[in-house]
Amino acid sequence: MQVNRRALLGAAALGAGFRARAAGAEPAVATFAVKHPDGRETAYRVMGPSRGGDLRVVLFSHGANSTNTDYDLLWRPWAERGYLVIGPNHIDSGPVAQQRKMTPGALWVTRIDDAALPLRERAMFDAVAHGWGGRIDWARVCAAGHSFGAVVAQSLAGATLTNPGDHTPFDGRAPGIAACMTFSPPGPLPGFIPADAWKSVTAPSLLQTGDIDVLPGFVNDWKLRLTGFAGAPDRWTIVARGVNHYFGGLICRRRADAGAALPALDETARLSGAFLDAYLRGKGAALDMLSERAGLCDDGLLTFARAG
After folding, report:
1. Which band of pLDDT confidence, cut at 50, 70 and 90, is reported for residue 193?
2. 3-state secondary structure of 53
3. Is 200 exposed, middle or buried (0-12, 13-18, 19+ CB in 10 A)?
4. Once rounded to an integer, what is the mean pLDDT over residues 270-295?
5. CA 86 – CA 75 distance, rounded (Å)
6. How many Å apart are CA 297 and CA 294, to the nearest integer?
7. Quick one: which of 200, 137, 194, 114 has its CA closest to 161?
8. Which stretches of 43-121 are DSSP H helices?
9. How many domains does the chain have?
């Protein structure tokens, strides 16, 4: 892909502008669009600490028909912890008419391309970070996502999948993925996600679901979301009590009256932040905290365990 110089300069200006307006520990945010060779356009949203510093990257893929603005209750704690969160608006966040023109396989390929683009076209994201007084270390990146976006993260981390359009083997593995976080992944799906898809993932991984995380006709038992996750080192699971696919409307399909699941979401953000510290920054204290918390297992909000 050819990077448009205007887009590059725009990203730098956005980074500098938001740094100037950010107050205290409030995360800084920048948005800009990237045009692909096929003519489609992807809007990217970047959130990071306004203080800059040495930054590690979290690539985040949103759920189907959602947007990159619907996950701030996860993004903000990560940004405040010193991470740069990058999320595209995939084509299924746009008009339904646009989506209907695409086959499932073609849509899937655009999602993977959107999520991996920052790893190929680093300059515009470096410009944003520089505007905030930061520098990105691209050596260790975390792939993350919710629902259909969780499958994108799995693919970037090396999961063995098949293209949902023609059911041929699909290799979406991206270089530099050192960790993977999946929120409500769907579990096995015939012709798309084999039951052993996780066997080829070697990166440390965190999986979150809830004990009422059911989508009738799609995922009828929340435990299916855990399929294939155990049996390897450095895999962690969060099962939140009384939490559905959307944390009661706090993420993805947001509701103004949401809030009952906020304590569980806050704890999920805290544990996932420690996971990032442990595996992207190599902080032993963070790994110790995760191990201690896994020893407690259930605190009334959620069950946290080390799989395998």
Report:
1. very high
2. strand
3. middle
4. 97
5. 9
6. 5
7. 194
8. 72-80, 96-100, 104-120
9. 1
**Cα torsion angle, 50, 133, 131, 150, sign:** negative
Which residue is it, tokens 């946290």?
304
What is the Cα–Cα distance from 169 to 220, expressed in whole angstroms? 26
What residues make up the domain containing 244?
5-307
Q: For 240, which DSSP code?
A: E
Residues 8 and 29: beta-carbon distance below 8 Å: no
User: For residue 97, what pLDDT is reported?
Assistant: 47
- We report the CATH number of the domain holding residue 289 as 3.40.50.1820
Does residue 111 surpass a pLDDT of 50? Answer: yes
Closest CA to 12 of 169, 131, 106, 153: 131
Q: Which residues contact 67 (CB under 8 A, 6 or more apart)?
A: 89, 93
